[in-house]
Amino acid sequence: MDRTITFDDPTLSRISQNASSYNNNASAWDMVLDEGKIMGDGQGSLILTLTNGTGTDAPRGTKLSTTNYMLYGEFYATMKVSKWPGVVTAFISMSDVKDEIDWEWTGNKTKTALSNFFYLGEIPSTGQGSNGNETELSADGSAAFHEYGIKWAPEQLDWLVDGNVVRTVRKVDTLDADGIYHYPYTPTRVQLSIWPGGIESLPKGTQDWAGGLIDWNDSDYLTNGYFYAVVKSLRTVCADPTVDATAHSYVYTNATSNAAPVFAYSNQTGISSATSTRLVPLLDRSFTVTSLLILITMGICML
After folding, report:
1. Residue 114 contacts residue 132 (beta carbons within 8 Å)
2. Residues 70 and 216 grouped into a single domain
3. Mean pLDDT for back-to-back runs of 10 residues, the chain (303 residues)
4. Which residues are catalytic, by number?
């Protein structure tokens, strides 16, 4: 299934902007605002903002997540990134068990895009590595829109810029000495964010990587009242599903002997609040489930 999310509607009506009252209804919303503040730019694009806190409040970034999950497929964002040292822009996939695939940009290096991947929240130590692989852009990423893409297949992971593959990782190259593949494998949502890497509460290594401490007296910040990144569109292409037609969901079950979570397809449409497994309905199958007394109608597309 191919879905393109645009931001032409000035009210941003397809984005749930109140995460506390969001009821996980994937049919009603394309995305949910997990934190921060968004706005339209009046030209069909979305602005993600980063503001400084007052008093005891910490600086506040913005994070948006898709309401649908996907298991393998492609996702693309057309965007301009932030240009201020210490400010980080991100376009990533994130699963409930912290499998992660990233594009990131630091505000001090706006002609460079960083690609990363994580296995269950950890940096793989095998294969081609995952942290901070650099791609030089043809034009400054804060001044020009680029399309950033990720193709995630069961055996190979590709990062793309403007339609061109710039990095490839094969699952087979992530195999460790214990026979474990350190490769993302669990259903995920796609996220867009802007966050403060250059603040004193974070480790110095993070501050330095982000470009140093944020200058809250920067003239752009004083004029606008925020730092920002701009997103023109988000496109997801789900892998064709080959799941049995009776399957309605997946559930996380017991971990393997190496603590890797296991998920399975299920024909369940609900779980009791006493169970610890997580159930997420498949895309385009309409029903509701109850988990911890919260109404859930989410979606997932999967291979």
Report:
1. yes
2. yes
3. 87 87 76 95 96 81 90 95 98 93 97 94 71 90 98 97 96 89 92 96 95 97 97 90 63 69 68 41 32 33 47
4. 100, 104
